[in-house]
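tool_log.txt
---
The assistant was asked to compare two proteins side by side. It first ran the structure predictor on the initial sequence, then on the second. Raw inputs and outputs are pasted verbatim so the downstream comparison step can read them without reformatting.
(1)
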Amino acid sequence: MIAKIKKLFRKNWLLLLIMIAVVMAITFYRGGVYMKAKAEEQRVENLKAEKVSARKAKNTFENIKAIHIQSSTLDRMTGYINMGMEIVFQDNFSVTFGYSYSDNDEFDVLTTYTLEDPNRQKRGVTASNLQVTYSNGEKETI
């Protein structure tokens, strides 16, 4: 009788372990899918912020030939976006600088930035088209 009880207990124990393993496998799989979806959502949000940033830079400085965005970070808690970019002007002078702006910013220009060379980084609007390279390597003409 005791042998039958032990045998039954072992079978139930094994069945319980198998059920726990299946539940854990499903949970890990779904968690991985969720993380991939969140990463893709973050990438899309960063690209959108970079596109807005490129337009703001075009409306802030004159004589821009190309913009290379090196990094971007979106802080969801504060709504601020931090950018690192290199701007190449028509005379092939380039300047690298970082700046941040609010996602709720209603201005169409950059309001806070650092001037590397005030003689070349002149405020104004670039009327011609320029080449923008985003941090993911995607290129666009705006």
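(2)
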Amino acid sequence: MTIDEFYEEHEGIEYSVDADETVEVPEGQLSLDENEEDETKLQRVK
């Protein structure tokens, strides 16, 4: 990877970390889905 490739814009998840170290994610980027085994999965919304 070149330095130019490193600085190119790429897909990712926007987030911010609050002073109490919790993470805020803008609405519409992620969803929480539960399956039959009561496991919660974090999924990226496309």
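---
observation on (2): The chain has one domain: 3-44. The CA atoms of residues 12 and 29 lie 10 Å apart.
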